[in-house]
């Protein structure tokens, strides 16, 4: 029986293609059949009229082809394919009877020599299966979309509330930071004043010390120069008188000397002696034979004789003078001790005053110590305050404060306010010198508050930028923010970040396909523009077509034109109820056509 039914169906289909359809309905959509029922029919563009007999008479009476929907006489006319068992379509009437089967039921080639088989049942079956799947996807997608829309509305309300709260906290915290900043400025100003005073005092002490050192170095030099000058003058005087003695002035060999001493007449050693002064008798000096250690003065030069006499005034030993590198003596000179005492007793030569040249101790040295004492006494006690005082143990941390709230569960902002208030109260009567512990505490509170304020301001900026974006009519694209979708095509990985940018990645290199521009076509497409410039071409751009899907998936990336990319993004955000209803109607219509076809 089934075989017979199938054969009958094929016969009916062949008969339908062989005989032309009625002219009054040929190429006319079912919804327009009533328009053509009148005796006189107007052209749709209002250009004229035609009678029912002129309908589909293969002559164009209306420029828009209203009178020829079933023929190819008017190039602007449209032919309707019923396609029973499948989806109906509309084609240009110029394709009617052109020898090519455009309608699956073959109705467009009713007057040609072509034989068109009716394939609507097979094509319709595949289309219906596809349509059923699409409807099922939309049904599930609509549920997911509605859930995300509700979550997005709550999230946006939460973001707006957070933004309002942060702006209030920012205002309060900004005031606290400004007060701490002013207190910090006062502390730094006082510290700077103290530093300048200290530098000034150190400079004064340094200059006075340098001045004192210069005076001390100058005083010994002057003393040595004066002593050296006196010594040289006395040595010259003694030398001149000794020379006179050796020239044969007065030599008395009959002097009463029990031991055979030779008396030598030496002039009186006085400052400013002259030639007219009377000679003075000298004491006896032992001869070379009596004292083997004595030195024969006849072989001495004037300089050596002068040093011999000068040694009596400087208190130095003649042997030391002869050995000293400073004096440059290589010969040792010595005057016997008895002769020296006799010479001093006879001429009343005063003993030379011993001076300590090693230390150069003088009144200048005393003055220096006195100056140092005055220096210390003039420095104020404040300048020697210990810079490392121990922190005030009375200060308590924020966690230990009991005056924040009665319950002890104050917010962070309340704690900061209380801490700043305590700090400001403690510095209400600001005075110098600066308390280093409290100054450090003020700086710490200022840094902490400033850091918190910076974070709040950053969060405010982020939320403000986010909430000003276009998330769709029902905020369905809210969760696209801060998300990126990836898809691989060949060797490239494409990365699309809505509201930010799109890129093409190959290994470690990345090409910018464009920055976020806007939604287009009623939120059915995302547009990215102003990407990296192509070589001798335009800036790269990307258009992402959106379609319904149960998850966010990027695929179908292509480059139909140079540096102009396209892609498809499946997302539940596009599963809208209106589209679901439309698809359901199509599925119902296809099922109805199938039932009609089965009845035939």
Automatic annotation (TrEMBL):
Start and end residues of each stretch annotated as Disordered: 204-402
Residue stretches making up the MRH domain: 447-577
Coiled coil among keywords: yes
Keywords on record: Coiled coil, Disulfide bond, Endoplasmic reticulum, Signal
Regions of compositional bias (Basic and acidic residues) in chain numbering: 204-219, 231-259, 320-330, 362-372, 391-402
Residue stretches of biased makeup (Acidic residues): 331-354, 373-390
SUPFAM superfamilies: Mannose 6-phosphate receptor domain
Pfam families: PRKCSH-like, PRKCSH_1
Residue ranges the record marks as coiled coil: 573-600
InterPro entries the UniProt entry points to: Gtb1-like, Man6P_isomerase_rcpt-bd_dom_sf, MRH_dom, PRKCSH, PRKCSH_N
Signal peptide: 1-18
Name of this protein: Glucosidase 2 subunit beta
Organism: Triticum aestivum (Wheat)
